[in-house]
Write a structure and sequence with these properties.
Beta Polymerase, domain 2; 12 helices
Length: about 280
């Protein structure tokens, strides 16, 4: 796998790189596979690799970690805390805070466990009472399709691919979209940006893509994203993604439209793209 390069004029925040390096080192020590997910992964690929505008600033750094059981997850957490710069919180087991040297700013770090810990299901139940359930559908698929990004001359880190991020955004939205629309907002931003994120040539070269987009490369990029999701997703994950869109199309489109209000026909813009994505996934 050839690593992606960060644009020299758009470097990643050095503190974020320090966090990435620490997690990479400690996961390797525990024999755990990992990848960067969430808003920071979005910004790394869209902004720092492809030079596109960022939607919103974030100091949250989210990782997905493939662990066998809760003991292995706890061991990773203990290793990070032992480094001295990571602090735990009593409120959430997945959350740590990184205090950068000579800074009052704390970066929030979330660790999302998946893999063997789920015991063959698409969900995990957080101890000790096992009452908080988290949907982890698609995480094994997106790990297999992760990108390598060169963050420093001596450090390459794993980052969720853009199609993988779209899968995770849809799954997360299905869980929390009624209380937080940010995943819907991120998804439409990703759909609108996909062609420009290094895919313009593919839009024209892949059979049927530019036709599906009515010869509009940005619109065709949405169709290409759907095709790439199909390449990344297992049959089970693809069924879940299709079901989410079919079941909640109107609510998802409505939340996406809220972030497109600067457009004259925001509803039409979103509806056309979401239906095109759905068509590509069929």
């Amino acid at each position: 796998m050839i690593p992606r390069s960060i644009k020299p004029d758009l470097p990643v925040d050095p503190v974020t790189v320090d966090i990435l390096r620490a997690v990479a080192e400690e996961t390797q020590a525990e024999g755990i596979d990992y990848l960067l997910v969430g808003a920071t992964a979005r910004d790394v690929l869209l902004t720092h690799v492809h030079g596109l505008a960022s939607r919103r600033a974030t100091y949250d750094v989210d990782f997905a970690v493939s662990v066998k059981n809760w003991d292995q997850f706890a061991a990773l957490r203990t290793r990070l805390i032992a480094r001295g710069a990571f602090n735990a919180t009593d409120k959430a087991q997945q959350r740590l805070y990184y205090q950068a040297p000579d800074s009052n700013l704390a970066y929030q770090l979330d660790l999302v466990p998946f893999g063997g810990i789920s015991e063959g299901t698409n969900a995990i139940a957080w101890p000790p009472d096992m009452k908080i359930i988290m949907n982890i559908a698609g995480y094994d698929d997106v790990l297999a399709a992760a990108e390598l990004v060169t963050f420093a001359p001596d450090f390459d880190g794993k980052v969720v691919s853009l199609p993988g991020l779209a899968i995770l955004k849809l799954v997360a939205w299905s869980d929390r979209g009624r209380v937080d629309p940010k995943d819907a907002h991120d998804l439409i931003h990703l759909m609108n940006s996909y062609a420009a994120a290094g895919n313009v040539d593919r839009v024209y070269d892949e059979d049927g893509v530019i036709d599906a987009g009515e010869y509009d490369p940005d619109l065709a990029g949405v169709y290409l994203l759907g095709k790439d999701i199909r390449r990344v997703a297992s049959t089970d994950t693809l069924d879940i993604v299709r079901h989410i869109i079919e079941r909640d199309f109107d609510r998802l489109a409505h939340q996406m439209t809220k972030t497109m209000r600067h457009l004259e026909d925001a509803e039409g813009h979103v509806d056309k793209r979401l239906r095109l994505l759905q068509r590509a996934l069929a």
